Amino acid sequence: MNSETTPLAVRRAHLVAECAQQRGDIAYELNLLKAPVERLGGVGQSLMANRKVLLAGGGVALGMLIARPKPVLAIVATGVSAWKIVQNVLPRVMPVVQRVMPQVMPIIRERFGSRFQ
C-alpha cells in the first residue's frame, strides 16, 4: 500500500486486519505444536519440576559409567535384551489385551471408582 496516497484510516484498518490474520496463523501453529505435548499428559511439566533430580541422576549414571564400565554395560545389555523381548512379544499380546479390556474395565471402574475412565 502506498502511504502517500492512501488515507491513514484505510492503512490502519489494513494493518489491523493483517495483525488479526497473523494472530490466527500463530494460534494455529501453536496448537499444532501443543497437540503432541498434551497427549503426554503433563510429562514435560513434571520433568521441569524435577530437573535437578534428573540431572543429578544423569551425573551419577555417567560417573558410574566412567568409574566402572563393565557392570554398567552389563546392565545396559540386559536392558536392551529385555527391550527386544518386549518388542517381540508385544504384537502378540496386544490383541488379547484389547479383546479382554472391554470386559475388565467395568469391573475395575466399579471397584476403584472413576479414576480409571
Class based on secondary structure composition and strand pairing: mainly alpha
Number of strands: 0
What ranges have pLDDT less than 50 throughout 5 or more consecutive residues?
A: none
Number of helices: 4
User: For the report, how would you describe the main beta sheet?
Assistant: none
Shape call? extended
Average pLDDT: 85
Helix content: over 70%
Quote the distance from N terminus to C terminus: 56 Å
Strand content: under 5%
Q: Gyration radius, to the nearest Å?
A: 27 Å
Please trace the helix and strand order, writing H or E for each element.
HHHH
Report on this model:
The radius of gyration is 27 Å and the shape is extended. It is 85% helix and 0% strand. The chain is mainly α.
Task: Summarize, please.
This protein has 117 residues and is mainly alpha-helical.
Record keyword descriptors for this entry.
mainly alpha; 117 residues; single chain; 85% helix
What's the layout of helices and strands?
Blueprint: H1 8-39, H2 43-49, H3 51-67, H4 69-112
Helix pairs in contact: 3-4
